[in-house]
Predict the structure.
Amino acid sequence: MATAVGRAERADAQRNRQKVLETADRLFAERGTAVSLGEIATAAGVGAGTVYRHFPTKDALLATVLDHRMRQLHEVGLAAIEGADPEAAFFAYLHHIAEQALVNRVICETLAWRNDWQEPAKADGRCVIDMPLAVLLARAQEAGAVRRDLDAEDVRALLAGFVGMAAAAGTPERARRLSRFLWDGLRAERNKAFRNEPAEPGRGHNETQRNCPVCGSPLPATATGRPAKYCSAACRQKAFRDKRKAV
């Protein structure tokens, strides 16, 4: 009889712990780290003592919630590594992490301020997203899709910077639009265009990128008609004057 009672108590304790974790995950996502243990207990329908028995401090509860979220990001990264397109896989993973930061305030605050996302994982002494991020970056660089002067720490810093940018943007929609500009800056072809370097054959519209013969700036694309020869009227006039002088 005592054994049966003990098993029932342990099962009840496990249910309460799970209920606290699920409630904490939801409230941290909605309101960030300012949520108190008392508020979590009330929302979970348990006493404050129940919460403290499982999680003696808010940091302990927060760490458990973040560990779960980081493992999810790690698993998404591992799945992305299996993708056939290195460029698509790398940028999809960046987009997924950024999107999680937008919809989950505790992840957003962690990326921006607490720096806990870089806290070493207990198993191997490294952050759990380091490996998939580094592998995806290396594959994209090897494929010529991402500039080679980046490393995984640079990309993590950019993700943290995205969170600050998202806060300044005011709305998730604007933050998502700005994130596309940020990630486009990592693309090898985009940076070749800015540096007036020739694009590699077979890699999209940059293959036919032309530059102004006067100042060297990229020429604007034209949807119809003859392609532009000069980037501006000033360059066109300068070319005309130079031609007349040569005659």
